[in-house]
Design brief:
The protein has helices spanning 19-35, 71-74, 93-109, 116-127, 142-153, 167-171; strands at residues 11-15, 45-52, 55-62, 65-70, 81-87, 112-113, 139-140, 176-181. Helix 1 packs across helix 4 (116-127) and helix 3 packs antiparallel against helix 5. By secondary structure, it is α+β, with helices and mostly antiparallel strands. Strands 4-3-2-1-5-8 form a 6-stranded antiparallel sheet. Strands 6-7 form a two-stranded parallel ribbon. The chain contains 6 helices and 8 strands, in the order βαβββαβαβαβααβ.
């Protein structure tokens, strides 16, 4: 797969080699084992690909809210550890527009990363205490915002809350295929 093969609506899953990324993977691995998921594939961050004016953007929850960033300025196709997922049923032109409108909506309303989410995961995984609840679009974390983007396209496939989305719900979503894994 080449970068040019990515389509609007595809999912980016990525790892970095920093403390937070490694810690998220460690927590998710422990959670995945408890839930019975295979844990050989883990990613610490999720976002949505969108092409705008021949530039590939990634929209996702980061420190200052749900934001777009230019893929080429933040990632190295040849060296970064990432994966690309795509909905099994190709998006129609109308659904691509819907996706663009939805990510722009989240960008407009999201003011901050949901920092307490990491603490919620630590409480759930290590103390078995569930503190998750539905929050507004103003505060999202990366797995949740990607799940919301999927649910926006197909609400009939995703019933209930997305407030406690984990990497496994994205990776093993029966409606999406893992198309590409980098060489890492």
């Amino acid at each position: 797969m080449d970068k040019k093969d990515i389509k609007t609506g595809d999912t980016l899953l990525v790892n970095r080699n920093n403390f937070l990324s490694r810690t998220i993977r460690k927590v998710m691995k422990k959670w995945g084992k408890r839930q019975g998921y295979p844990t050989n594939i883990l990613y610490s961050h999720a976002a949505r690909f969108v092409w705008i004016a021949d530039t590939l953007y990634v929209f996702g929850s980061v420190e200052n809210g749900y934001q777009p960033w230019d893929f080429d300025k933040h990632y190295d196709w040849e060296n970064d550890d990432f994966a690309v997922m795509r909905r099994k049923t190709p998006l129609t032109e109308a659904e691509e527009k819907q996706t663009i409108n939805y990510v722009l909506h989240l960008d407009a309303v999201s003011v901050s990363y949901q920092y307490w989410n990491f603490i919620q995961w630590l409480l759930l995984v290590y103390l078995h205490t569930d503190t998750f609840k539905n929050d507004s679009d103003k505060f999202t974390y990366c797995y949740e915002s990607e799940h919301k983007a999927r649910k926006n396209l197909n609400p009939e496939w995703y019933m209930g809350s997305v407030a406690q989305t984990d990497i496994f719900e994205l990776l093993y979503d029966q409606n999406y295929d893992l198309l590409y894994k980098s060489k890492q």
